[in-house]
Specification:
An 8-stranded parallel beta barrel has the order 3-4-5-6-7-8-9-10, surrounded by 4 helices. Strand 5, helix 3 and strand 6 form a beta-alpha-beta unit. With 351 residues, it is α/β, with parallel strands linked by helices.
Length: 351
């Protein structure tokens, strides 16, 4: 697999990233190690995790376990310089820290992640979601920024970037990035970094797929002009685009079934709607017309956007990962991309 530069940094990463958010819950630690071995053998050197993980569900008592699993893999396999590790500091919430992060907290969380990852540096350190709030995770339908305090937000950014500058200078972190951010927020992080002479954000990890294309306008323009790479999570729309949930199906061991078994609603974080089912059926119809595997088509789509985009692949088992890896050579034709765009106009933002 070819490598690419991460944003405006000098860090080279594989053009596809492997996500690890289920490691330690739906995916046993040993199975996670096998997935990382398989991905590395396929040329994927870029791995993403977070202090919050594992998920589905997120539990206070399991916070940090995925980083430990990744760290055990790093320690047992050696060759740290062969791979690039990305992790994230959690924003406000009831599972990690109610207050989220500030400069003082980040000085501690970086060290805690380094310890769990069993490494002396992190290639990409990301802010998982903004302290001021976010429209990610289906909050866009009722998003209200009217109570934000601009001066307070900018002061917070200065505090955070001062701390991140310290950990970068200390060699603990190579580059920094965002997650679940907006165009305004990303622009301000870049402005403050330039004013302080601190590290610039080189990436933004936001949801992006055939079904969720909120990145396509303002954020895309910002990303191109400011050299900020999109790390696209949920490129298969949390499994919807596989088609396994069509006609009300809920396969045993799936994310929906697991969520229901633990008392959850089984709605894939608000993604499972009537309109989403209609859109998925339409996408599968188009894939059949094009003679393409719908999963491979969905991943190829993210890799051919007019902005720099690296999809994060996620699999609960090795069979799913092998299927994803088998389609990484696919490149969609101009005709296929045009037909995808036309279909998107008929099924915009289905959740």
């Amino acid at each position: 697999m070819d490598s690419t530069t991460l944003g405006g940094s000098d860090i080279r990463v594989s053009e596809v990233c492997l996500g690890t958010m289920t490691f330690g819950n739906q995916t046993a630690g040993a199975d996670g190690h096998t997935q990382m071995d398989r991905a590395l053998a396929a040329g994927i050197t870029f791995f993403d995790t977070a202090e919050l993980y594992p998920v589905n569900p997120v539990r206070r008592e399991t916070v940090g376990q995925t980083e430990e699993i990744v760290g055990n893999w790093l320690a047992s396999r050696g060759g740290r310089d062969r791979v690039q590790i990305a992790t994230k500091a959690a924003g406000p919430g009831d599972k990690v820290r109610a207050e989220g992060f500030n400069g003082a907290i980040l000085r501690q969380t970086v060290d805690a992640s380094l310890k769990r990852l069993k490494t002396d540096y992190i290639d990409l350190y990301q802010l998982h979601w903004p302290v001021r709030g976010s429209y990610a995770f289906r909050q866009n339908w009722r998003y209200d920024p009217s109570k934000q305090d601009r001066a307070e937000t900018l002061a917070h950014m200065e505090d955070v970037l001062t701390a991140l500058d310290e950990v970068v200078r200390a060699g603990k972190v190579r580059a920094i990035g965002l997650s679940n951010e907006s165009a305004w927020g990303t622009a301000r992080w870049l402005d403050v970094a330039e004013r302080l002479g601190g590290p610039r954000m080189v990436s933004i990890q936001n949801e992006y797929s055939l079904l969720y294309r909120a990145f396509d306008t303002d954020l895309a323009e910002l990303a191109v002009n400011e050299k900020v790479t999109l790390l696209a999570y949920s490129p298969l729309a949390a499994g919807l685009l596989t088609g396994k949930y069509l006609n009300g199906d809920e396969p045993v061991g799936s994310r929906v079934a697991t969520d229901r078994a633990t008392g959850g609603p089984g709605d894939l974080g608000g993604r499972r709607t009537v309109r989403a089912d209609q859109a998925v059926a339409a996408w599968h119809g188009l894939a059949a017309e094009l003679g393409l595997d719908p999963i491979h088509m969905a991943i190829a789509f993210t890799r051919q956007r007019p902005f720099h985009c690296i999809p994060i692949l996620g699999a609960t088992d090795l069979g799913q990962l092998d299927h994803l890896l088998a389609g990484l050579d696919l490149r969609l034709s101009d005709d296929a991309l045009a037909r995808i765009d036309r279909l998107h106009r008929s099924h915009p933002l289905p959740y």
